[in-house]
Design brief:
Blueprint (H helix, E strand, L loop, with lengths): L1 E6 L2 E6 L8 H13 L45 H4 L11 E6 L18 E2 L27 H12 L16 E6 L9 H11 L8 E4 L8 H13 L3 E5 L20 E6 L16 E4 L3 E4 L22 E5 L2 H18 L8 H14 L27 H7 L13 H13 L21 H13 L15
Parallel strand pairs: 3-5, 3-6, 4-5, 6-7, 7-8, 8-9
Antiparallel strand pairs: 1-2, 10-11
Helix pairs in contact: 3-6, 4-5, 9-10
The structure holds calcium ion (4 copies).
Length: 475
């Protein structure tokens, strides 16, 4: 194929060699040979690489929330489309900071990246501690005598931050984030208003404040008097606040505080068939995430749930727990998806910071899968009080902020229009990773009008591609 480009009064002949069947080292040699022939001014191989579509983590095959093959009897495909979500290009900025407020954490678990903790903090305070063995991070570490509920923080941490693709254990929903582990509970797993205040203040510190705060606890709603101003202040600062809705125990069937706060995204729980699994519901519920019968990190060795807890003893490796359930595990999964959106586009939240948390919430809600609940995915509305807007989907959320970038290089420019033309007319590669990245004009299809739309945007001040999908091509 030959393309003639006119730049000023200089004409270039650009030749495309179709070398798709060759390995990358072959095309490098070939390019060198063309250059050395003296026939070309420049030769640039168009290098492409195949993404890893799965991981080498030992128990990845068990992680149905990320890729549901029906491995535990559920519905294949009832997952967050994690493998496709991993294929979106990220901007190479400082990863977002996610504050996890939880009981305590096994800080040096084998399946965490080295030096992973960002400004760890013990918000339980010195007054209610008992003696325990300090480890790498005094205060947040479980410690030898300090682990009554430490399994809980270790489990929520694992959902988000398990070290993906390191050859052991599990994959995290987004293991590239900086996690700010904040311990809120004392030795008995109890916490009070003071520890929550200190935790939120720490997560809001001017240097290194968290962009996402994930809360896997419920507390008395009388705390709202004190906590609501703090949530409101964070929300207005553009921070995404996420909390588990509660596990629907008798007397707790409605969404619990802090998930019920108007500033906080309330997350319920689904099983591997996309059915709701005993989580609290009601008008305050925003969405649901897979969190029933799942594998995650456990305190290493004989500490934690495995081997002592029968339900979690399905695995002979005592460093991992399985069959866990609860909205505590749903919240960090949604936090991981929110982090993916910020990794892809740190400016997702736009110039108007005061609306920005709401933009994040709307993006996550609109991208939910709804078909299982009898509502079409492109029917953008809340389904009901049991699932809110539906079950989260990481790929659809990322696709919805990637319209007009079908070549997945983070720029919207003429190369995107040129990418679409062979797809439309001559069977060229489809937009990646999800076809809707090619739907620049958000009319529900990918056709020549999208290439024209991009050219108009790039060269003549035309409208920008939409950010939130409104059409079924993105389903
Ligand atoms: Ca791993
Ligand atoms: Ca253990
Ligand atoms: Ca592009
Ligand atoms: Ca279109």
């Amino acid at each position: 194929m030959t393309v003639t480009e006119i730049l000023g009064d200089i004409a270039f002949q650009i030749y495309f060699l179709d070398n798709n069947q060759k390995r990358s080292d072959d095309i490098t040699v070939l390019a060198r040979r063309y250059y050395e022939s003296g026939l070309c001014t420049a030769v640039a191989p168009n290098m492409t690489s195949k993404m890893h579509f799965s991981t080498n983590d030992t128990y990845y095959g068990q992680q149905w929330p990320l890729k549901n093959t029906g491995q535990n009897g559920g519905t294949p495909g009832a997952d967050i489309d994690w493998e496709i979500a991993q294929q979106y290009t990220n901007r190479s900025f400082q990863p977002p900071v996610v504050a996890l407020l939880d009981a305590g954490f096994d800080m040096d678990h084998e399946d965490l990246p080295p030096s992973w903790a960002w400004h760890p903090y013990d918000a339980a305070g010195p007054d209610i501690q008992i003696p325990y063995v300090f480890d790498d991070y005094p205060g947040t570490e479980c410690g030898q005598y300090y682990h009554v509920w430490c399994w809980h923080g270790t489990a929520t941490l694992g959902v988000l931050k398990a070290y993906t693709n390191n050859g052991i254990g599990l994959a995290g929903t987004e293991s590239r984030v900086n996690v700010m582990p904040i311990k809120i509970a004392d030795a008995n797993g109890d916490f009070d208003l003071g520890s929550l205040q200190r935790a939120l203040d720490w997560a809001s510190q001017p240097t290194g404040a968290a962009q996402i705060i994930s809360m896997s606890f419920v507390c008395d709603s009388v705390y709202a008097t004190t906590l609501e101003p703090r949530f409101r202040e964070r929300y207005l600062a553009g921070v995404t606040l996420i909390a588990g809705a509660g596990n629907g125990e008798p007397g707790f069937s409605s969404v619990q505080y802090p998930a019920s706060s108007p500033y906080v995204l309330a997350v319920g729980e689904t099983n591997s068939s996309d059915d709701t699994a005993a989580s609290s519901g009601g008008p305050a519920l925003d969405l649901v995430a897979p969190a029933f019968d799942i594998w995650t990190l456990d305190q290493e060795g004989s500490d934690g749930l495995n081997p002592s807890h029968t339900g979690a003893s399905c695995n002979s490796n005592q460093n991992y727990a399985c069959h866990l359930a609860g909205t505590s595990l749903a919240a960090p999964m949604v936090a991981g998806i929110a982090a993916k959106l910020l990794l892809r586009n740190p400016w997702l939240l736009g110039d108007h910071v005061k609306d920005s948390a709401e933009v994040m919430y709307a993006t996550l809600r609109n991208a939910c899968d709804r078909q299982h609940y009898g509502v079409a995915n492109d029917d953008y509305r809340r389904v009901n009080n049991a699932v809110g807007w539906g079950r989260v989907n990481a790929d659809r959320a990322l696709a919805s902020i990637s319209h007009g970038d079908p070549n997945n290089d983070l720029q919207i420019d003429v190369s995107d229009a040129l990418y679409l033309i062979p797809y439309i007319f001559s069977g060229g590669p489809a937009p990646v990773p999800n076809i809707c990245t090619g739907d620049a004009n958000c009319d529900g299809g990918v056709d020549i009008s999208d290439a024209v739309f991009i050219i108009s945007y790039v060269f003549s001040g035309g409208a920008a591609p939409c950010k939130i999908s409104l059409h079924s091509v993105c389903n």
